[in-house]
Structures are given as structure tokens and as C-alpha cells.
Amino acid sequence: MIGVPVLSIAGSDPSGGAGIQADLKTISACGGYGMSVLTALTAQNTRGVSAVFVPPTEFLAQQLDAVLTDVPPAAIKIGMLGSATVIDTVREALFALEAAGVRPLVVLDPVMVATSGDRLLDADAEAALHRLMAHVDLVTPNAPELGVLAAGAEPTCTADLVTQARALAHRHHVWVLAKGGHLVDGLTAGGTVTDVLLSPQGDVQAVDHPFVETTNTHGTGCSLSSALATFAARGADWPAATRLAVDYLAHALAHADELGIGSGHGPVHHLAGLWDGEGVPSLGLASGWWAQLAARARASDATTVVRALASGSVEPELFQLYLGQDLAYLQDYAEHLDAASNAAADRGDVDGAAFWAASATVCREEEPELHTRLGAEVPEPDAVTRAYADHLASASAAGYPVLVAALLPCFSLYAEVGARLAPDLADDAAAEVRDWVTTYADPGFAAVAAEAMARLDELAEDADPATRERMRRAMAQSLEREIAFFDR
Ligand SMILES: Nc1ncnc2c1ncn2[C@@H]1O[C@H](COP(=O)(O)OP(=O)(O)OP(=O)(O)O)[C@@H](O)[C@H]1O
Ligand SMILES: Cc1ncc(CO)c(N)n1
């Protein structure tokens, strides 16, 4: 959900590159509504920290109370804490929230030292940090911080990161994203930085991203943890939120030198994507489901019709059977596209209504031209076609988001099959094969399929978990119907 409240509990960096300033920019860029509670004020710029002022903890508690009693955040990012008393005040606020039945997602960036080398956490505050961890879902230590928290030597390679992150994950039953930004010695442009994500059970996932040759890395840790909190608040699970956050930061880092702020370690370009008109990153939930179905989608290559198309010549009987049934199917499919258009209009989604209506027109007027050109006529629908129609009808009854999920494979699978077959189309391929393949390999068709997916991604993000699950299943079911449709 775009605009979910996300709270940063962190210190202020008046130069705007780290701390709550970085957090608010990042939360906004990633699609959240940013709020901030200040733990400490630093006098800081891109060259370093010259002073730290920690307001009385009573005032910290008042800030927390004011925000939390009015705007319950979907996620909280915790940054600079400064001292054990500050940590305990934050812990008590989280404990009180939980006692009241409110459990926001909590990301802890265990800030100890700034990029400039200045300490931001008292050395005696480590025990308090471990106590806080009971209320945390995911913690994002850099290499030196991980060494301190896991009570080991400072990690010097990815294998060290994994070992120590696993110990920390087990100890506190938390997700750990161990950052590799301090292990980049010797890397040059084109190299790869590896962060590692560990589940509370210790499962490892390497999260690779391109090394960016820049000295403008001030606040990378603050920005990453805020992006993580925001994507999780919008509904991504931790692995997906991690990938989205790392990609967001990679883009902000890649554009950091364009900003050119300050004479020391300057900030990353938090708003690079927004200013370039790319908008807020999509969670891509439905795209993720489709990606998980990729192996099934490839199974369509083994069907009778697709194998024949790939060979360049189709047996006329088989092709007429398939094309005829497809004509019958398209009539029914167009009606469901109309229903989707009406449902979008009912929700006030004018663009969506126009998109589905235009797709219905293509289904009724343009696409059947291919079929009739190839000699097909509308037959009685057979069992396979009827089963697909029944599935679409039941998806339609389950509501607009589930219907759109069911409509999706018809777009995506045909665009993918077209794109796969076109490059290998033999020069002597039969005319009807060429006609079919070029119709579905058309870049315009791919663009329409991509837009349908983008609309489904948006619906998935706004859906509750039960509806999401129904959407995912409706998509998978339609894919099975599509494969059966090709296998005549
Ligand atoms: N030069 C770089 N190129 C690409 N990614 C980088 C680079 N430097 C840091 N990162 C990434 O930035 C994120 C923050 O990592 P890092 O280890 O620098 O954290 P940090 O030390 O907590 O940051 P901060 O500078 O805010 O204290 C990680 O995802 C890391 O991989
Ligand atoms: C306020 C603040 N928080 C965090 C960091 C870590 O980069 C910093 N430099 N300043």
C-alpha cells in the first residue's frame, strides 16, 4: 500500500545525508509516509561529527508517545541510539505497543560508528542493544558492527559475515542483513558487492549488487534500513524487501556523484529515481508469482501446438482445432475483460477501465482477424475450453483483483511464447506459422502484457493476504489452462 506510515527513530544529521534526514527522503522515495522521532542531534557534515546533543530521555518518551498514540506505523526503523538509556526508552515504548496489541515491523540499524569514523553509540550500550533485539524483526549490521554484536573478530570476508550473522540470527531469532560495504577493498567499477541475508532459522541468501566507485557513501546504512522498513511496510516479505531496498540504494549510489554535495563523504542521491520520472518502485508481487511459475510456463514448449509452431510447420487439423477453440475462448475472454473494465470503473480507476476495455476490443475485433485469416470458424467449445471458461467465471465471482490475476497468463504466456519462437523462426516456415508467431512476438503486444502485469502488481499490493493468495492461485490455475489449451 503506497503511503503507509513508517517511523524512523534516529539521530539528526543537519547536512541531510544520514540520520532522520536520509530516512525521511528514503521513506518518501520508496512509497511510505515518513515520520521521525529524534534520539539525538549531531553537529555533522560530510566531513565528520563535531558534537552530539542527546535530549532528556523524558522528551524522547514524549515524542514516541505523541506519534505512537496517533499514527500507528506499519514499520519502524531504528538508527542512532547513542546510549543505553536511550535504547531502554525505545525498548519500553515498543514493549508498551506490543502489550497494547500493536506489532509494527521493526528494522534495527545498529549504528555504532559514522562513515567518518566518529562514535555514535557508547561502548557500554551493547548489552542494552541485545535487550532491544527481542522487539526487532530484522537487524542490519555492517562488518565491524556484526563483529561486536556476535562477539567475534571483525569479519573480513563474506564467509565470516555468514558465520557471525548466523550466530546473531539464532541468538535473537531475528533476520540479519549483514552488509558487505566494508569488504570492498580491491573492487573496481564492474565488481560485485555482496550483502548476506539470514533468516532466523539461519537460511542464507547472498544479495549481490554492483560496486559503485564513489566516495559519496555517507548515510548508505541509514538509507538501506529505511528502504527495507518501507518496502516491508508496503507488504513485501523480508527477502523481497531486501532485494527492493538494495536495488533502490544501488540506484541512489550510482547517481550520488551527480549531486556532488559537500567536500567530504557526500550523500547518495535519494531521489534519483523520482527526479528521473521513474516514480515509486513497485513491489512487483504479482511479477514475483509469475517468475515463480516460470518453469511451468516453459512447459508450454512441450505442448503439441507450440512444438509444431517451433518446427515451422503445423498439421492443418491440429492447427484448425486449436484456432477454432481459441476463437471460442476469445469471445468469452472479451466478456471477462469487459467485466474487469466495469469493475475498474466502479472503483474510480479510469485508466484501468480504459485499459481493459481496449483489450476487450482487441480480443473481439483484431485478434480474431488472425484466426479467420487462417481459416478458423467458431466451433462448440470443447472440454478444455469450457474448463478455462469455468475457471474465469469463478475468478470473476471472487472479485476484481482475482479476476485480473486469472486474466493475466493469457497476456503474459502468449507474449513469452511469441518472443521465444520469433528469433528461431525458419526462413522456410509455413505462412500460417509466421503469421501466428509475428502476431504474438509484436513488441506492442509485449507492452500490453507488461501493463497488465503492472496493474496486477498494484492490485496485489493493496490486497489483504487472503485475497493475495486467491490471486496467486487464480494466476497459476489459468497458466495450467493455457498449457492444456496448447496441448491438443
Ligand atoms: N561503494 C559501494 N558500492 C556499492 N554498494 C555499496 C558501496 N558502499 C556501500 N554499499 C552498500 O551500502 C549498504 C550499506 O553498507 P555499509 O556496509 O556501508 O553500511 P554502513 O557502514 O552501516 O553505512 P553508513 O555509511 O551509513 O555507516 C550495503 O548494502 C552495502 O553493500
Ligand atoms: C545521525 C546519524 N545517524 C547515523 C549515521 C550513520 O551513518 C550518521 N552519520 N548520523
Automatic annotation (TrEMBL):
An example Gene Ontology CC term for this record: cytosol
Reactions it catalyzes: 4-amino-2-methyl-5-(phosphooxymethyl)pyrimidine + ATP = 4-amino-2-methyl-5-(diphosphooxymethyl)pyrimidine + ADP; 4-amino-5-hydroxymethyl-2-methylpyrimidine + ATP = 4-amino-2-methyl-5-(phosphooxymethyl)pyrimidine + ADP + H(+)
Positions of the Thiaminase-2/PQQC domain: 306-487
GO BP annotation list: thiamine biosynthetic process; thiamine diphosphate biosynthetic process
Residue span(s) of domain Pyridoxamine kinase/Phosphomethylpyrimidine kinase: 13-269
Pathway info: Cofactor biosynthesis; thiamine diphosphate biosynthesis; 4-amino-2-methyl-5-diphosphomethylpyrimidine from 5-amino-1-(5-phospho-D-ribosyl)imidazole: step 3/3
Statement: the UniProt record of this protein carries the keyword Nucleotide-binding: yes
Gene3D superfamilies: 3.40.1190.20, Heme oxygenase-like (1.20.910.10)
First-level EC class: transferase
Pfam families listed in its UniProt record: Phos_pyr_kin, TENA_THI-4
Keyword set, alphabetical order: ATP-binding, Kinase, Nucleotide-binding, Thiamine biosynthesis, Transferase
An MF annotation (GO) of this entry: hydroxymethylpyrimidine kinase activity
EC number assigned by the record: 2.7.1.49, 2.7.4.7
Function, in words: Catalyzes the phosphorylation of hydroxymethylpyrimidine phosphate (HMP-P) to HMP-PP, and of HMP to HMP-P.
Descriptive protein name: Bifunctional hydroxymethylpyrimidine kinase/phosphomethylpyrimidine kinase
The organism of origin for this protein: Galactobacter caseinivorans
